[in-house]
Amino acid sequence: MHTIYPLAVPKGRQLCCEVCEAPAERVCTACTVTYYCGPVHQKADWASIHEKICQLLIPLRTTMPFYNSEEERQHGLQQLQKRQASPIYTRVYSHLPQKHLIELCYTVAQKYLFEGKHEDAVPAALHSLRFRMNVHGLSSVELVPAYLLLAEASLEYLSQARWTVLKSADCSNATHSLLHRNLGLLYMAKENHEEARYHLANDIYFASCAFGTEDIRTSGGYFHLASVFHGLKNMELADTLYTKVSEIWHTYLNGYYQTLLQAHTQQTDLLGKQFVNDTDLDEAQEAEAIRILTSILSFRESTSSKAPQKTVLVLKTLSILYYLMLECSKAKEYATRALSLAEEHLSVQEQSDIQELLNIISTEEEEPIT
Questions:
Q1: N or C: where does the chain have the smaller number of CB atoms within 10 Å of the terminal CB?
Q2: How far apart are CA 227 and CA 242, in angstroms?
Q3: Angle between helices 156-167 and 144-153 (to 10 degrees)
Q4: Selected residue with higher pLDDT from 137 and 95
Q5: CATH class for domain 252-267+275-370?
Q6: Over the stretch 142-201, which tens digit does the pLDDT of each residue have?
Q7: Domain ranges for the chain
Q8: Beta strands in the chain (DSSP E)
Q9: CB atoms within 10 A of CB 90
Q10: b/e per residue 232-261 (b: at least 16 CB within 10 A)
């Protein structure tokens, strides 16, 4: 992390902290365009998102000064270009416009939230919100996803998101889904089960309209609604919804796994190129998948004697997920557990499928992709 020094603010100009918008007293010496009220918020911002976008902020926040001559203008332009050509800036994302920074910050904030690191999510979510404001305006419905991220960490933003949606005549089903999901989670935390069920049911409806009933983006609504029923001790409904979520994720991940198997079998890389496993998920979605599936696994293992095949499905799905994420040790662990349980309760064919998965994981663990 770069050091920060007291900021000399020109008279008549007020600079604000990147995190809390209080009067700034310090500046990041790496980019010199980001300000803080003190070292606490500078460190928080750096750990959350600033380290990833520090140099990318320079061209967005640097304005060309007025020059008296063409010679001075050319010299100033050369200095700015030299500054932007630093190794840090050119190494990652140097070509991305501001709209891509929106998604980068949004994904980072989402990942923190799925991992339960709410404080770390705030600076990244604030950056996503500010970039959205710059691109779309102060009252655009495009601000709502960022407000909802912030709402999970700081509830004061949730009312702003709801009000923006209510005012908008052009709000997508996906945004409605996000809003209702966050409201559902809020009421779950307050143990207001009736309101939680109402909003999560609306989340599922709008997500289904946007993506379809069997899409992984809809599965989050099913999962949270199942958790509500689980908390109410309605195990039958919780079981049904957890099963649906497991099947959605298994179908999605198994599709990528089967495609990979087919590619290996057909030996399509005639030039000897190594295949690269992939989930086609961003980091936030991978974190969400891990959180959802491990939570369902805990539920299944507490009732495994009644439905061992459902526990095997979750174990196998987690194994495929980690295999596609190139984390072979965890993939092997879950596949081994799935096979052990399958040998006691499932058919020979189902055991064979899991054994094949375990063999592939073991082979790749011994000869990792380089």
A1: C
A2: 9
A3: 160
A4: 137
A5: mainly alpha
A6: 888 888 888 877 766 777 788 788 788 788 999 999 999 988 988 888 889 999 999 999
A7: 1-63, 252-267+275-370
A8: 4-6, 26-28, 35-36
A9: 12
A10: eeeeeebbebbbbbbebbbebbbebbeebe
Amino acid identity at 81: Q
Query: Other CB atoms closer than 10 Å to residue 307's CB: what's the count?
Result: 14
Strands 26-28 and 35-36: antiparallel
Quick one: residue 363, left, alpha or beta (phi over 0 = left, psi -120 to 50 = alpha)?
A: alpha
Q: Which residues are registered as beta bridge partners of 27?
A: 5, 35
Does 16 score more than 50 pLDDT? Answer: yes
Cα dihedral across residues 131, 133, 134, 140: positive or negative: positive
3-state secondary structure at position 23: strand
Return the structure tokens found at 198.
């109402």
Lookup: tokens for 224: 């949270």
Q: What gap in Å lies between CA 342 and CA 309, rounded to an integer?
A: 7
Residue 283 has pLDDT above 60, yes or no: yes
